[in-house]
Design goal:
The structure holds 3 protein chains of 3 kinds. Chain A is mostly helical. Chain A is 78% helix and 1% strand. Chain A has a single domain, classed as ABC transporter involved in vitamin B12 uptake, BtuC (Orthogonal Bundle). In chain A, a hairpin with a 2-residue loop joins strand 1 and strand 2. Chain B has a domain of 219 residues. In chain B, the strands form 2 sheets. In chain B, strands 1-4 form a two-stranded antiparallel ribbon. Helix content of chain B is 72%, strand content 2%. Chain C has 11 helices and 12 strands. In chain C, strands 2-1-3-4-5-11 form a 6-stranded parallel sheet, sandwiched between helices. Classes of the chains: A mainly alpha, B mainly alpha, C alpha/beta. At the A-C interface, helix 2, helix 5, helix 6, helix 10 and helix 12 of A face helix 1, strand 2 and helix 3 of C.
C-alpha cells in the first residue's frame, strides 16, 4: 500500500490545527461572541483545570482501571486549603498541604486497588464518598471563607495573553509526557493496561505500577482542585463533583481506551478543550442544563464509536471493498 | 471493568494455603461452612451488624424500626436484583438512577391523564423495559462498551423525564390502593417488603432453575465458550439489560408509592451507585459470572441498616457520605480478605 | 448497522446542531438584554417563579432575556462560567441568584469591570462586596425561620415540646439561615429540637430522614421543614407511621404549602415572595439599562417580606402563592 501524505504526523497535526481554526471561525458566524479573544481565552482557562484532572484519569485508564474519586478530592483539597488560609496560613503552604492530601487519598486508592485487588470502580467510589463527605463536613464547620486576591488572580488572570491555568496545565503535560515516554515506569504503565497477565509474566512490577497511577491521579486531582479553588476564589464543598465524569468524558473524547493500554495524555487535554468549547457554545445559546448533559452524553458515545470501532470499521470497509471487487471481476 | 486484565490465579505466586478444613483436620464445621459459602457469610455479617446495632444504637431494635429499615430496603433490593442480571453477564448499567426518575414521571403522568392505576404502572414498567432493550441493543449489536452506553443512557433518560414532566414536580393523584401499598401490612410485614420478596423468589428460580438463568451465568464466565456451546449470547445480553431497567422501573414505582411524587430527580446518580454497591457488598463480582439473589438482597439491607443507624446515632448529615464511603471500602476489604483466606481469587 | 463511522459522525453532527439551535435571545438590535443566572428552574417552583416574573417584567418593558441555568446543587463552577458568558455577551444587566455567595465573586468582578449592573435575588454574596451589586432583594430567611418557630412555640405552649427539624441541603445559605432562625425561635421558648437532619431539598431524602427520626422519637409532636419542597415526603413518612397528629410547619409559601394549610395538613407556612423579587429586580435592571435609574442609587437590601400563613389568612395567601 502506498504511503499517503496523511500518514505523516506533521501533516496530520497541521491539518488538525487548520481544521480547528476553521471550525472556530465557522461556529463564530452562528454563535455571537464565541470567536472573541476574551471568550476563547476563558474557555481555555476553564478547560485547563479539567485537563489536569483528565491527565490523572488518563494514567489510571491506561492501566485498565478508573478513578471515581477525582471530583471528591478536588472539593476536599479546596476546602482544606481555604480553611488553612482563613486561619492565617499563607496560601503557598496551604497548597502544599492540599497536594499532600491528594497524594494521601491517591495512595489509599493505590493500596486498595493494587494490594487488596478490589475493583477500582467500587474502591474509588468509596474514597469519593469519604473525600466528598469530609469536604461537606469541614465546610460546614468553617463557614464561607475566601482566598486572598493574589491566589485568586492565579486562577483568573493571564500573562502575555495566555491564562496562567493554561500555562500550568501545559507544563504539567510536558512533564508527564516526558516521564511516561522516557522512563521504564511509563512503558510499564502502558504494558500493564494492555495485557495484565503478559506484563506480569514479563517481569513488570504490576502492583506497583497500578498503584502509582492512582497516586499520581490523586496528586493531579489535588492540583486541579487547587486551580478550581483559585478560579472561584472559594471552596464550595460541592464544586468538584461534576469533574469526575467530565474527566472521564474528556479522556474518552480524546480517544483513551476505557479498557486500558491505548491513549495519549495530550489527547485528553484536547478532549477537555473540546468539551468546554461545546459547553460554552451551549451556554451562549441558552441551552438548558439537562440538554447540555444529553449532548455531552451523545458526544461521548460518538467518540467511543469512532475511536474504539474506528479500526474495526476500516477493516470492514476494506473487506466490503474487496468483496465488491471480486464480484465485479467474476 | 476490564475482563482481560484480571489475573486468573491467586494473588501470590507461592503455593496457596491448605484449605481450612485440612489444616484443622476435622470435618467442615459451622465456621467453615459460613466462611466457604459467601451468602451464609453475608447473612452472618448482617446478623452481627444487627446485634451490635441493637446493643449500641438507641431505638434500633424496635419492631417498628426493623420494619422501616426493611421497607426502605425493598426498592433498593428490587433494583439491585435487576442490576445483578447485568453484572452477571459482565456488563454494567449506570442508567438505573435516571430510570427511577423517568418511571416515576411516566407513572404519575399516565395516572393524571387516565386515572387508571394499573395502566400507569404498566406504562412505567413498559418504559423501563423498552429503555433496557435499547441499552442491550446498543451494547450487543453496535458494540459500544456498557459503561459508555449506559452513561449516555442516564442522560437520555433524565432528559426524557424532564421533557415529559415539563420541569414541574408532579403530584400523584390520591389513590387508596397506591397509598395503601406503602402503608399496608400483611401479618405485620409491609406490602413493599412482600413484593420485594416475591420478586427475589422469582429471580432466584429463574437464575438457578431455568436454562435462561444458567445461560446468563455461562455468558458471564466466558462469553466465547458460552456462544460456542450453543447459548444465544445476543439474546441473553439484551434480555438482561431489559430486566435490569425493568426492575429499576419497578423499584421506582415502589419508591413513588412512598413519596407520592413524580419527579425526574428521583434516584439520580446516587441511586445508581447505591444499587451497584448493594450488589457488590452482596458478593456480586463486577467481572461477571458470580453473584446471588440472596446476597444482593442482604447487601441492600446492610446499606439501609447503615443509613438507619447513622440517623439514629445523630451523626451530622455532612459526615453521612463519608461514613458510607468508609463502610463500602471496609466491606470490600473484608470480602477480599475472606476470599484470600480461602485461597480463592477471581 | 455496521456503518459505525457514519453513525458516529451523524450523532456528533446532531449534537452540534442541537448546541447551535439559535436561542431566542441576544438580540442584535436596540432592545436591552437582561441576563438571568439561576441554579435551576425545573423541579424548583421558587426559582421558577422569580425567573418567570422577571422575564415577564423585562419583556413588558420592551427588553429580552438571556436565561442561563446552571443545572443543580453541584454546578457551582458552571454558574460562574455562565456569569462570565453573560459578560462576554455584553448584556445590559444581570439578575442572579447565586448558588455560592463567594464563588461568584470573581465573575461579578468581571461584570463590574465591564460596567454591567448586577442585581441579586434570593441569596446574598459574601459580606464586604457591596460594590459588586446594586441591590439584593430577598427574604430574611433567619426571620422567616424564627417567626415560624416562635409561632409553633407560642401556639403549642408546651415547655416539653418535642420538635424535629428537616434541614435544607448542606452548603445552602438559605438553608443555614432558616435553620438558625428555627433554633432562635425555639430557644425563645427554651426548647431544643430532639433531632435535626438534612432533607437535601428533596422529598425522597426528607421522607427517609423523617422515618428514621420517628423511630428514635415516637412521641414527636412537631416538625419544622426548611422548605415546602420537602413537605410531601415528610407528610408521607408521618402517614406511613400513623402519626397524623404531628404538626408540620414549613417555609416558602408555595401552592403546595398554602394548599397544605388549607387542607389542614400543615399548621403554618412562612411565605416568600419570589414574584416580587423577580419583578422588582427586572424593573431596576431595565431602568438602569434605559437610564431612568441611577447606578448606586438603590437600597443595598430590600426585604421582600415574609408572612406566617395559617388557616385564617390562607385564602388570601393562595392568591400570591407560586
Amino acid at each position: 500500500m502506498t504511503r499517503l501524505p496523511t500518514d505523516r504526523p506533521l501533516v496530520r497535526a497541521t491539518a488538525a490545527a487548520v481544521a480547528i481554526v476553521v471550525a472556530v471561525l465557522l461556529v463564530g458566524q452562528f454563535v455571537p461572541y464565541f470567536a472573541t479573544t476574551t471568550n476563547l481565552s476563558k474557555v481555555l482557562l476553564e478547560a485547563a483545570i479539567l485537563s489536569v484532572a483528565a491527565f490523572g484519569m488518563t494514567l489510571v485508564l491506561l492501566t485498565g482501571g478508573i478513578d471515581l474519586s477525582v471530583g471528591g478530592v478536588m472539593s476536599l483539597v479546596g476546602v482544606v486549603e481555604v480553611s488553612l488560609v482563613s486561619s492565617g496560613v499563607p496560601w503557598p503552604a496551604a497548597v502544599v498541604v492540599g497536594l499532600g492530601i491528594g497524594l494521601l487519598l491517591g495512595t489509599v486508592n493505590a493500596v486498595i486497588v493494587s494490594r487488596l485487588k478490589l475493583p477500582p470502580f467500587i474502591a474509588t467510589f468509596g474514597t469519593l464518598g469519604i473525600a466528598a463527605g469530609l469536604a461537606l463536613y469541614i465546610a460546614n464547620v468553617i463557614g464561607h471563607p475566601v482566598f486572598p486576591p493574589d491566589f485568586v488572580s492565579l486562577g483568573n488572570d493571564a500573562v502575555l495573553g495566555i491564562p496562567i491555568t493554561v500555562m500550568l496545565a501545559v507544563a504539567i503535560l510536558i512533564v508527564l509526557e516526558v516521564v511516561t515516554r522516557v522512563t521504564t515506569w511509563g512503558v510499564h504503565l502502558r504494558a500493564t493496561g494492555d495485557n495484565f497477565a503478559v506484563a506480569r509474566l514479563s517481569g513488570v512490577p504490576v502492583a506497583r505500577v497500578l498503584g502509582s497511577a492512582y497516586v499520581i491521579s490523586g496528586l493531579l486531582a489535588a492540583t486541579a482542585g487547587t486551580m478550581l479553588a483559585a478560579r472561584l476564589g472559594t471552596a464550595n464543598p460541592l464544586q468538584g463533583e461534576p469533574y469526575t465524569l467530565l474527566a472521564v468524558a474528556a479522556c474518552v473524547i480524546g480517544g483513551v481506551d476505557l479498557f486500558g493500554g491505548r491513549g495519549h495524555l495530550w489527547a485528553a487535554g484536547a478532549g477537555a478543550v473540546f468539551l468546554f468549547a461545546i459547553r460554552n457554545i451551549m451556554n451562549l445559546q441558552g441551552v438548558q442544563p439537562f440538554m447540555q448533559d444529553l449532548v455531552i452524553g451523545l458526544l461521548i458515545i460518538a467518540a467511543v464509536l469512532v475511536t474504539v470501532q474506528g479500526p474495526a470499521l476500516r477493516d470492514m470497509a476494506s473487506d466490503a471493498l474487496q468483496r465488491s471487487r471480486h464480484r465485479n471481476a467474476a | 471493568m476490564s475482563t482481560s486484565s484480571a489475573p486468573a490465579t491467586g494473588g501470590s505466586m507461592t503455593s496457596p494455603q491448605p484449605a481450612a478444613t485440612e489444616r484443622r483436620g476435622r470435618a467442615a464445621g459451622t465456621w467453615d461452612r459460613i466462611s466457604r459459602n459467601p451468602t451464609l457469610g453475608l447473612l452472618a455479617l448482617l446478623l452481627v451488624m444487627w446485634a451490635l446495632a441493637w446493643i449500641l444504637v438507641p431505638k434500633f431494635g424496635s419492631v417498628d424500626n426493623i420494619r422501616t429499615v426493611l421497607r426502605q430496603a425493598s426498592d433498593l433490593g428490587v433494583a439491585a436484583i435487576g442490576i445483578l442480571f447485568v453484572l452477571l453477564i459482565g456488563g454494567i448499567d449506570l442508567s438505573v438512577g435516571a430510570l427511577y426518575g423517568l418511571s416515576s414521571v411516566v407513572l404519575v403522568t399516565v395516572m393524571i391523564q387516565t386515572g387508571s392505576l394499573p395502566l400507569a404502572i404498566a406504562a412505567a414498567l413498559g418504559a423501563g423495559v423498552l429503555f433496557g432493550l435499547l441499552n442491550g441493543v446498543l451494547v450487543q449489536w453496535v458494540r459500544i462498551p456498557a459503561f459508555i452506553t449506559t452513561l449516555g443512557g442516564f442522560y437520555i433518560a433524565y432528559a426524557l423525564a424532564q421533557m415529559i414532566s415539563a420541569g414541574s414536580m408532579l403530584s400523584m393523584p390520591a389513590d387508596d390502593l397506591f397509598v395503601g401499598l406503602q402503608t399496608g401490612l400483611l401479618l405485620g410485614i409491609p406490602y413493599l417488603v412482600i413484593l420485594a420478596a416475591i420478586v427475589a423468589a422469582i429471580a432466584w428460580v429463574v437464575l438457578n432453575h431455568t436454562t435462561f438463568g444458567r445461560s446468563v451465568v455461562a455468558v458471564g464466565y466466558n462469553r466465547v465458550t458460552a456462544g460456542l456451546s450453543g447459548v444465544r449470547v445476543p439474546r441473553i445480553v439484551i434480555t438482561c439489560f431489559a430486566i435490569c431497567s425493568g426492575m429499576a422501573a419497578l423499584a421506582a414505582v415502589m419508591l413513588t408509592s412512598r413519596v407520592q411524587i413524580g419527579v425526574p430527580t428521583l434516584g439520580g446518580f446516587n441511586a445508581t451507585f447505591e444499587t451497584i454497591t448493594a450488589a457488590v457488598v452482596g458478593g456480586t463480582s463486577l467481572f461477571g459470572g458470580r453473584g446471588t439473589v440472596v446476597g444482593v438482597i442482604i447487601g441492600a439491607i446492610i446499606i439501609r441498616t447503615i443509613n438507619n443507624c447513622i440517623v439514629l446515632l445523630n451523626i451530622p448529615s455532612q459526615l453521612y457520605q463519608a461514613v458510607m464511603g468508609l463502610i463500602i471500602v471496609v466491606a470490600l476489604v473484608v470480602d477480599a480478605a475472606r476470599s484470600r483466606y480461602l485461597g480463592e481469587r477471581t | 448497522m455496521r456503518r459505525l463511522g457514519v453513525s458516529s459522525a451523524v450523532i456528533a453532527a446532531a449534537a452540534l446542531v442541537v448546541a447551535m439551535v439559535p436561542a431566542a435571545a441576544v438580540a442584535q438590535d436596540e432592545a436591552p438584554v437582561i441576563g438571568l443566572s439561576v441554579k435551576t428552574i425545573t423541579n424548583d417552583p421558587f426559582q421558577a417563579a422569580w425567573v418567570e416574573a422577571a422575564t415577564a417584567k423585562v419583556e413588558e418593558l420592551g427588553g429580552t432575556v438571556q436565561l442561563l441555568v446552571a443545572g443543580g446543587q453541584t454546578a457551582v463552577a458552571q454558574q460562574s462560567s455562565q456569569l462570565e458568558d453573560l459578560v462576554t455577551q455584553q448584556v445590559d444587566g444581570i439578575i442572579v441568584s447565586p448558588m455560592d455567595g463567594s464563588a461568584v465573586l470573581p465573575a461579578l468582578q468581571k461584570a463590574a469591570d465591564a460596567g454591567i449592573p448586577v442585581f441579586l435575588v434570593d441569596q446574598p454574596i459574601a459580606a464586604g462586596n457591596e460594590a459588586l451589586y446594586e441591590t439584593l432583594i430577598a427574604t430574611d430567611n433567619v426571620k422567616a425561620g424564627r417567626d415560624l418557630a416562635t409561632y409553633l412555640v407560642t401556639t403549642m405552649n408546651d415547655p416539653e415540646l418535642k420538635v424535629a427539624i428537616i434541614e435544607g441541603a448542606p452548603g445552602s445559605v438559605a438553608g443555614d439561615d432558616r435553620l438558625a432562625g428555627f433554633n432562635e425561635g425555639l430557644a425563645s421558648g427554651n426548647i431544643t429540637p430532639v433531632a435535626s437532619a438534612t432533607g437535601e431539598w428533596d422529598n425522597a431524602k426528607a421522607l427517609a430522614a423523617m422515618e428514621t427520626i420517628l423511630q428514635a422519637n415516637p412521641d414527636l409532636q412537631a416538625v419544622l421543614s426548611a422548605s415546602d419542597v420537602m413537605v410531601d415526603g415528610i407528610l408521607q413518612a408521618l402517614a406511613g407511621a400513623g402519626k397524623t397528629d404531628v404538626k408540620v410547619l414549613a417555609i416558602d409559601g408555595s401552592t403546595v404549602g398554602i394548599q397544605g394549610v388549607l387542607d389542614g395538613k400543615i399548621m403554618a407556612d412562612n411565605t416568600q415572595d419570589p414574584m416580587a423579587m423577580g419583578s422588582t429586580a427586572a424593573e431596576f435592571a431595565m431602568g438602569m439599562a434605559g437610564g431612568t435609574v441611577e447606578p448606586g442609587s438603590l437600597e443595598k437590601y430590600i426585604d421582600s417580606g415574609t408572612v406566617t400563613v395559617t388557616l385564617e389568612n390562607a385564602e388570601e395567601a393562595m392568591a400570591k402563592a407560586f
